[in-house]
Amino acid sequence: MRMTLRTLLLTGAITWTSAIAYGQAAPAPQPHEVDLTFTYGAQRSNLTTGSDFWLRGGALDLSAELYHGWSIVANIAGERASNINSRGVNLTMVTTTFGPRYTWSPKRKLSVFGHGLIGEALGLDSVFPSPTGAQTDSNTLALQVGGGVDLRLSKHFAARALQADWVRTQFPNSTTNVQNNLRLGAGIVFRLQR
User: Fold this and answer.
1) Which one is predicted more confidently, 40 or 52?
2) Residue 182 belongs to domain spanning
């Protein structure tokens, strides 16, 4: 099944609207938290020949708490690497993922979270083999599983000390058509509502 970015965004919007409606319908003893996070990141990837390379870029993460640590998350990440092989091929990758996150706060200043997200990855400005020849762009399913640590700085700000994710994509590569990537990041969290 091939998902388009439009289908993915529509599914995310419906999920987001449902989550907000659920949050408004259920009475809560305290306001739910809404976070906007900006991170700088690097992603370790490899070619089918075994050589590894790093993509660098950033991500935007919007999460809304639904119930006692559970939240819904939308994540958009963009990364780029130049000269990933001996032929001077570049790669730009944009992932858009959505899904649940659980946050555990053993102390008020420290939060640990884990999530499982699904969505779409778009590869641009590269070479993707296909039965009809090479393409310069490709889109595929993306899975993102991982977590991180936030350190609260004030009522409305936190530092994302570390975020580590396994990102699986399925871009065509003439062999397995599967990529398992390690994404690391750090950044700043804005607490929009608390």
Assistant:
1) 40
2) 5-23+31-193
